[in-house]
Amino acid sequence: MTAAVFFGCAFIAFGPALALYIFTIATEPLRVIFLIIGAFFWLVSLLFSSLFWFMARTITDNKDGPIQKYLLILGVLVSVLIQEMFRFMYYKLLKKASEGLKSINPDETAPSMRLLAYVSGLGFGIMSGVFAFVNTLSDSLGPGTVGIHGDSPQFFLNSGAYPLIEKTRLNKTFMTLVIILLHVFWGIIFFDGCEKKKWSALLVVLLTHLLVSALTFISPHYGINLVSTYIIMVLMGIWAFFVAGGSCRSLKFCLLCQDKDFLLFNQRSR
Amino acid sequence: MIFPSRDFKVLSGFSSDLEARGVLCSPEPGTSQGRAMLTFMASDSEEEVCDERTSLMSAESPPPRCCQEARQGLEDGENAAQWRSQDSEEDLDDADRYVCSGVPGQPLGLEEELTLKYGAKHVIMLFVPVTLCMIVVVATIKSVRFYTEKNGQLIYTPFTEDTPSVGQRLLNSVLNTLIMISVIVAMTIFLVVLYKYRCYKFIHGWLIMSSLMLLFLFTYIYLGEVLKTYNVAMDYPTLFLTVWNFGAVGMVCIHWKGPLVLQQAYLIMISALMALVFIKYLPEWSAWVILGAISVYDLVAVLCPKGPLRMLVETAQERNEPIFPALIYSSAMVWTVGMAKLDPSSQGALQLPYDPEMEEDSYDSFGEPSYPEVFEPPLPGSPEGELEEEEERGVKLGLGDFIFYSVLVGKAAATGSGDWNTTLACFVAILIGLCLTLLLLAVFKKALPALPISITFGLIFYFSTDNLVRPFMDTLASHQLYI
Question: What is the rounded radius of gyration, in angstroms, for the C-alpha atoms of chain A?
Answer without folding.
Answer: 21
